[in-house]
Amino acid sequence: MRILVTGATGKVGQALISAVFNDASHAATYIRALCHNRTMAETDRLTVVRGSIDDRHVCRAALDGVTHVVHLATCKEVPETVMDVTVKGLFWLLEEFRQSPTATRFVLIGGDAGIGHFFHKHPAPITEDAPHMAYPGCYALSKVLEEVMVQQFGIQYGIDWCCLRAPWIMEKDDFRHTLSFGSDLFGGPVWADMVTPEQAETCRADGTIPLLHDADGVPLKRNFVHVDDLVAAILLALEAPAARQRLYNIAMDQPVDYAEVARHLNKTRNLPSIHIKSEFFSNWLDNSRARYELGWRPRYDLEKLIEASWTYDRAADDPRRVWYPG
Fold first, then answer.
1. Angle at 122 between CA 76 and CA 165, to 5 degrees
2. Using CA of residue 117, residue 121, residue 124, residue 130, what is the dihedral sign?
3. What is the biggest distance separating any 2 CA atoms in the chain, rounded to whole angstroms?
4. CATH no. for residue 46?
5. Torsion of the alpha carbons at 300, 304, 305 and 307, rounded to the nearest 10
6. Which of 24, 182, 234, 306 has its C-alpha lying 20 to 30 A from 54's C-alpha?
7. How far apart are CA 264 and CA 239, in angstroms?
8. Separation CA 65–CA 61 (nearest Å)
9. What is the DSSP letter of 139?
10. Which of 150, 146, 144, 149 has the alpha carbon at shortest distance from 131?
11. Distance, CA of 98 to CA of 157 (rounded, Å)
12. Count of helix runs (H) and strand runs (E) in the chain
């Protein structure tokens, strides 16, 4: 197997490459990393192609001899480049994939932004049959376009694709920083903007946990997945016969309940919490299809997600760097 990984230097890309190289069943698997702004060292099993996926010639060179593609490259809220990556770049990857004599399966990592995550209300658990519902901004629109493009190439040309729709992906101490009132906040909402300046300062000093409430006034439930669980799903999706032209929600078995987070951290670390009102909606990403068809099981539940983040010991040569805001 020869896998092309776009976005290889990101959180998921690095974890995937490490998992492949440490898996005895993938001893004969080679990886080609398509790198743009950052790069990585080549080895006897890892080669690097430099360039942007908005260049057809780069995509052609990257796909030469490849059997599988794992497409991770993305943009966040960057209107100047998001269409080059999402539309033009993905189009060239798919064009070269469908014409390749060696390519067999294209795995796209999608996102719950494409169905609105907590910006839109869903009356029931969100299955793969839920309609696309982008929220304001270019990133959510890009996730809709990605899924639609891959599905249409399957209809037009019969390509073997699989899409893994993931919510917010956590690793290391990420989850702890999603709850910070300080400048080390990872992602959103920006808690300090949702309270008074005096409250924000007190919360920073005390390590206070935001207990977010949804538009209905009850503790909000939001979907997450740990990077290790997503990588496990990718490895299954690469070869599972059932994954042909299938979309899967890849999320924790239950969404994160902010009230449960606050209770656990108060019990285990005596951290206080503060109630915060919002107009967001609680949602539940249903992972039943992946569990049934792929035999995939997430290892991280809420308690393990919290404990892994709070006990992570960051080494001196492992500085916290946030390449994208979420």
1. 40
2. negative
3. 63
4. 3.40.50.720
5. -160
6. 234
7. 39
8. 9
9. H
10. 144
11. 7
12. 11, 13
Q: In what order do the strands lie in the sheet with 2-6?
A: 46-50, 30-35, 2-6, 68-71, 105-111, 161-166, 246-249
SS3 content of the chain, % helix, strand, coil (to 5): 40, 20, 45
Structural domain boundaries, residue 199: 174-220+256-276
* Residue 107 covered by a domain: yes
Cβ pair 63, 3 in contact under 8 A: no
* Nearest one of 169, 231, 186, 220 to 15, comparing CA atoms: 231
Ranges of beta strands (E only) in 54-104 are: 68-71
Task: Count CA atoms closer than 13 A to 302's CA, side-chain side.
Answer: 15
d(CA 9, CA 32): 12
- Residue with token string 């430099």: 50
User: Is residue 135 in some structural domain?
Assistant: yes
Alpha helices, H only, 75-207 = 79-83, 90-99, 138-157, 174-178, 197-206
Q: How many domains does the chain have?
A: 2
Total number of residues shown for the chain: 326
Ramachandran sector of residue 65 (left: φ over 0; alpha: ψ -120 to 50; beta: rest): left
Q: What pLDDT does 326 receive? A: 44
Q: How many CB atoms lie within 10 A of CB 167?
A: 25
Does residue 109 sit in the same domain as residue 247? yes
**Neighbouring C-beta atoms of residue 148, cutoff 10 Å:** 12
Question: Hey, which residues does 71 pair with through a beta bridge?
Answer: 6, 108
Measured distance CA(66)–CA(100) in Å, rounded: 8
pTM, whole model, 2 decimals? Answer: 0.96
